[in-house]
Each structure stands twice: as C-alpha cells, then as structure tokens.
Amino acid sequence: MYVRAMLSSTLLLALPLALAAGSASTATPVPARVVEEARNILDQMVSTDTSHGHETDALGPVVERLRAVGVNPQVLESAPGRGNLVARLRGDGTKKPLLLLAHVDVVPVEGQPWTVPAFKSTEKDGWIYGRGINDDKGQAAIFTAVFLELAREKAKLHRDVILALTSGEETGGHAGAEWLVKNHPELVDAELAFNEGGMSRLSADGDKVEYVGLGVAEKTFQSFFLTAKGPGGHSSMPSPKSDIVPHLAKALIKVGELRFPAHVLPTAREHLELLARAARPEVNAVMKKLFAGKPLTPAEDDTLAADAPRNSLLRTTCVTTMLQGSPQDNVLPTSAVATVNCRVMPDETPAGTRDRLAAAVGDPSVTVELAGDFGSAPETPRDDAFDAIYRQVASHHFPGAPVIHPFAAGASDSRFLRMKGIRAYGVLSSPATEEEGLTGHTAHGPDERRQVKWFAPNVAFLRELTRVVAM
C-alpha cells in the first residue's frame, strides 16, 4: 500500500499555461470568500483551548462547514476528546491522492506573559494574535477553506484530496497523525502530503518575502531522563547518600556545557548558505569555515553557539526542560529526575546521543535513559517535477523570492508519513522575520502572532499550489 513511485515529469503537465509562462501578472486572484472563510475558521479554532486536549471541540465547527457543502467527514478519537478529522474529495483516479495535513492542538500558555487573551483571535496594530495563529491552526484554517472551495465548485480533480486535522502533534503525534497511520492507514494513504515546515522568511522590515521554503528534512526529537536515586527520608537529617539532588544538578551543568560537533548536513547546505549571508560578519566567517570543511577554534565555536537559529541547524542540541523531585518540602526525594530534550541531526542517532550525554555526565549514580521513542524518518527525496511546480507557484505569488529546501530544527508529523513512503513536504505558511522567530512570537511563545497583510497571500499561495497539484 505504501510503496511509492517518484513523481514523474508528467506532473508538469498540471501547470496552467499562465504558470508555465512564468507571468506574475496573470496569477489568478484568490476569491475574497476563501480568504474570509479561512479567517473565520481560524478565529473559531483559536477560541477553543486545545493546549491540554479537547481537539474534538475545535473540530466541531469544521464538521458543520463540511456537511453544509455535501462532505461527510469522519472524526476519529484516539482517546476521549482527542479527535482527528478526515475528509475526502474524490478525483478521477488518474493520480494518487494529495493529503492536506495540519494539527489543531497547541502548546500551553501557563506562566507566559500574554498582553491579549491567548485563546481569542485578536487583531491590533496590523497583527493577528492568539495561540495557534501560526502553529498550526493558521495552516489548518487555510487548508480547510481551500478544501471547502473545491467541494463547493465540484472541482474536476485528477487525484483525491484528503483533509486531515489532527490531535497531539505538540506532544509527539501519538494521539493524532501516528495513531491515524497505524490504525486507519487507508484514510491518509497518499502519494504526497502538504504539512507545516515550509519556514519562509520575510525581510527585516516585514515588507517582502525573501525566500519561500519547501521543507524536506528535519531533526529527530528525542528526550532523555537523567535520574539520581536515594533512600529518601526526613529533610532534617540528610546524609551524603540521601542528598541526591546535587548529583543531578552537577550532571545538568555538564549537559549544559556539552556541545556536539558542528558540521554541515548536505541537505541543509543551501539553506545555511542563505542564512550565512544574512548573519553577522563574525558568524558568516565561522560558517564559511564549516562549508570548507575546516575545524573551528573554541572561540569560533562560541561565536556559532551564540547564534541560536544557525547553531541549531549545524549540530545536535540538548537542553534541560523539566525537573522532578520530592512531593513535599520536608521530604528527601527517593528519585530526582530531569528531562533533557535533544534535537538530533539526521546523520546521528538517539542511541549515540544518549552515549555522549552519559559520557559527559561521568557519574554512575546518575542514569541516562531514552524517554520513549519519538520516531524518526529519512528526508523526502527530491523530485524535479514537483520542485518545478512549487517554484512556478512561488514565483507567481512572490516574484523574485527564491525557493529553498530548509532543514527544520524542530520535528513535525511529517515523519510518520515519510516512514510509510508518503512524500511529505513542509509548505509555506505564515512567513515571518528572523527577529519574530527569535522573540518567540511565531510559535510557542507569549503573544503568538502573524502580520495581517500576509494572511491573504498565504491563502492565495496554498490555494494555487493545491489546485495545480490536484486538478
């Protein structure tokens, strides 16, 4: 079922004449109704707090919209409240299906200093604010609006178009995409899929798209448990054996000081060279040494490590994110545990990363164990025919912006599709400036937001891409 052939050059025949001619002036304008509907769906999705489950509640309004245009979606729950919506428009079968995938869960907001309500779409000063605006309810809303338009017009499709809005991506995808692939593979079986991970960049002033991303590879997400154990007891009578937290604390300092070797992954070179040109001169010089295969001095490695966006694409990184100890302040813990989250380069392994962590800790009283298997997958193989389509659509909507294949420091649900031979791509969604990403406004941070003026162009781009590939 999951054996896939390479997309053939005949896919180029799907290009409309205007696209084949490369004329930006002939681009089909996106209907206002599609943009308005995408925005309304986004507002509805953001208003449901899905940071701790309850995705089924967020999918209810989408179900109503789909039924209104004659589509009967399925909402499959992997657990109570953990809904996954799947809907399908039938094509003539001459091509294999296209999957539009987006998750509707979001990360928590507790403890974050929001200046607007997190679970309400708020527009002010040219921005749309709300948890999930970018990650990933914005893309879910756009895919849904594009799907609804195709359903209304009863579009003549050469391939089935599948819409899948899933649960639990932010906690590993086990309640959503992974669950669907394992339990209902026939519902999401496709030749290619569009998902988050396009990572497109705006100029520093936010007025121009500098490049359009087509994501084909990402790091592996893998957490580890570092554990120190002792006999416990009363906090008034500690002993060297019972006071175990200092052992863990020393281990975590060593983890914080550990740096994995910086190196250039061939898949990422194109992306890195572009990022190097926009980097500070001293960072640019360091990256040029890496491109030339030369080792870095300690000072140069420090310079690279201080540039988070570029450093994250050049080495495996590990950081402590969670701590657990005693349940009460007058009780010595019998177990002190830290969670260390690593993002592993594709040419390295979780097991090898564990070994490096254990060697750095160097304390037999602190164990280092894998915290489950998050799953990893190879990159999506390059395909010249699909690349040509993507570049043509991009040139239509963002003239002069090159298309690159970004390498993602984060992980997405695409890995579950790639494991099964589905050609999963990260496509443009919510272009942002580098500064917005650094301040955390694009995803996971307080005051998550996107510029209003780029919402309609984002809709237009994904609409055109979907129609060209499916029709």
Q: What is this structure's SSE topology?
A:
Blueprint: H1 17-21, H2 32-46, H3 55-68, E1 74-77, E2 83-89, E3 98-103, E4 122-124, E5 127-129, H4 137-152, E6 161-166, H5 177-183, H6 185-188, E7 192-195, E8 201-202, E9 209-213, E10 217-218, E11 220-229, E12 233-234, H7 245-257, H8 269-277, H9 281-291, H10 298-305, H11 308-311, E13 317-324, E14 331-332, E15 335-344, H12 350-361, E16 366-370, H13 384-397, E17 403-404, E18 407-408, H14 414-419, E19 423-426, H15 434-438, E20 449-451, H16 455-470
Could you explain how this protein is built, in words?
The chain has 471 residues and is α/β, with parallel strands linked by helices. The protein has two domains: 9-216 and 379-470, 3-Layer(aba) Sandwich (Aminopeptidase); 220-370, Alpha-Beta Plaits (2-Layer Sandwich). The protein contains 16 helices and 20 strands. A six-stranded mixed sheet has the order 1-2-6-3-7-19. Helix 2 crosses helix 4, helix 2 (32-46) packs across helix 16 (455-470) and helix 9 packs across helix 10 (298-305). The protein is globular. The protein starts with 16 loop residues before the first helix and ends with a helix.
